[in-house]
Amino acid sequence: MADAATSHIETARTAAWGAVLSMALCVAMLIASEFMPVSLLTPMAEGLRATEGQTGQAISISGLFAVAASLLITTAAGRLNRKWVMVAMTAFMLLSLVLVAAAPNFAVLMIGRALLGVCIGGFWALAAAVIMRLVPKSDVPRALALMYGGQAIAAAFAAPVGSYLGGLFGWREVFWALTPIVAINLIWHVVALPSLPAEQKQDFRAMLGLLARPYFLRGLAACMLSWGSAFTMFTYLRPFLERVTGVGVTTLSILLLILGCAGFIGTWAAGRFLKGNIAPFLKLPAMVMGGATVGLLLLGFSPIAAGLFMAIWGAMNTLFSVIWMTWMSQNADDAPEAAGSLMVAAIQTSILFGAVVGGVLLDAMSIQATFIGSVLLAVAAIALIGDGRRMLKSQ
């Protein structure tokens, strides 16, 4: 009997870690799907007979729907089994990829990207809570690290591989190539995720309660300015590298790989240096990434200099998420689900804002104007954050 019980426990643990791995793959596919247009912006615009600024809205539209989904999902799906909610989110991602790959015009592309936004917002709003139910409490940090490992891998390789394969085969084929992986992920979810009945229904009162706290509202605003700065620049990085740095597809892919791989440095730094008081770290993303953008504006005509500043930007990009999620966990620990929904909504709103502002500046003025807009948002974030103490609940 004891042996049977032990075997059952080990089987359950194996199934749980299989579910965590399926979540990690879903994260990798989400990040790849969401930001693939960054590396394929120019050919997508040509193929759809749209401007690069208009095509950049393919990122902003997914951000818009992600905002709505992140705020509504925990309430709308409050009584549904979380397993099937996650399966549905992955199915939306698969359908989105098919619509984008086959899009005959710009309107169908935007519909596909809107579906992806629903998946992004819904998945991230529930992901941490689901992970916490898959493994014992002592294993939660390791499980979360494993899940976010999918984000690091996608950030490192999706853009350069997408750019390279897009140059060889075409941008549609890159999106088609993702569909069988997502289909496998969908089946994996069905098999590996255990039944996860809803534990309690969340409403908007918890979110409104957080927004009524001045320190949390200031922190959320500073986070949004920082993310808006980052994505005003990042969404239109390819046009900058093509027009200012003068790179071809191969060099572009190498530079994007440098940016992505630098993210592993940020992941290492997060575990080593982010301890105790988070306040001094809050302005680092805007300072470092804004500074790297200034460097690109001044020296971006050199591929070597561009690679250096992109590496700095990429390293801080992964540290960025950890800094602000740590701030959230320390300063909204009494309402983590509500805070998580608000953070996802804030980040996706910033991605939307950055893509829209950057696209308008690009089409109306120049790529340099887009990057200057990014720098100005970074300056605003730094000014709001100050020494960071006004963002803490103890202040």
Describe the structure.
- There is one protein chain.
- With about 400 residues, the protein is an all-alpha fold.
- It folds into two domains: about 1-200, MFS general substrate transporter like domains (Growth Hormone, Chain: A), CATH 1.20.1250.20; about 205-395, MFS general substrate transporter like domains (Growth Hormone, Chain: A, Up-down Bundle), CATH 1.20.1250.20.
- Helix content is about 85%, strand content about 0%.
- The protein has 16 helices and no strands.
- The radius of gyration is 21 Å and the shape is globular.
- The relative contact order is 0.14.
Shape: globular
Number of strands: 0
Name the CATH architecture of the largest domain.
Up-down Bundle
| Unreliably modeled segments | 1-15
Number of domains: 2
CATH class wording of the largest domain: Mainly Alpha
Largest sheet: none
Q: Classify the secondary structure makeup into a structural class.
A: mainly alpha
Overall radius of gyration:
21 Å
Please tell me the overall pLDDT.
81
**Proportion in β-strands:** under 5%
Instruction: Output the CATH topology of the largest domain.
Output: Growth Hormone, Chain: A
Spell the H/E element sequence. Answer: HHHHHHHHHHHHHHHH
Task: Find the CATH superfamily of the largest domain.
Answer: MFS general substrate transporter like domains
Helix content: over 70%
Distance between the termini: 56 Å
**What is the overall number of helices?**
16
